[in-house]
Amino acid sequence: MKQFLSGKLVRGLLGILGLTATVGGPVPATTPAIAAFASNGCSVFPEGSSFACCYVHDMKYWQGGTLSERRRADLALHQCVVDVTGGNYFASGLMYAAVSIFGLPGIPTRVQWGYGWADSRQVSYSPLTPAERAQVDSRKQELCRAFTPSPEPDKYVVDGEHWIRADDARQLCPSLGTGSVRSK
Fold first, then answer.
1. What tens digit of pLDDT does each residue of 96-106 get?
2. SS3 labels along the chain
């Protein structure tokens, strides 16, 4: 079962499904505005220790981009859930399958690829323009300023209630620097 849920068969099948989404698409005449980042955690899955994985994954989906960026985000979610659950390939496989199917651009869900943008970017895979990248970076900086060290070591509180691992926080927010996080 472990090999099936995390194996090439499932990834291949889901990759074929991903081909039904529009690749590329028209470039809008003006740069759309990206909404402030919002995460719904792990959607319909119990969060437990996986919230941090889902939060980081949501950040990638919020900004959108290319098909290869989406595949990397989905595989990173899968690996993160395996890591934080002590090797629960069943849960990580279910999550991987769900995001691979329901996160397609053009599928009307609240967390489809590129959900932070107006409808114009939610129907395709395309690289962010320099102007869009600047907007994403600006919104991420706002978000990063709100991260606070958790009472637990090597974690940051991201929304007053949930935490993410310090390594993930530094990946999202390079301004946090390196080293151990000291609790308040």
1. 999 998 888 87
2. CHHHHHCHHHHHHHHHHHCCCEECCCCCCCCCCCCCCCCCCCCCCCCHHHHHHHHHHHHHHHHCCCHHHHHHHHHHHHHHHHHHCCCCHHHHHHHHHHHHHHCCCCCCCCCCCCCCCCHHHCCEECCCCHHHHHHHHHHHHHHHHCCEECCCCCEEECCCCCEEEHHHHHHHCHHHCCCCCCCC
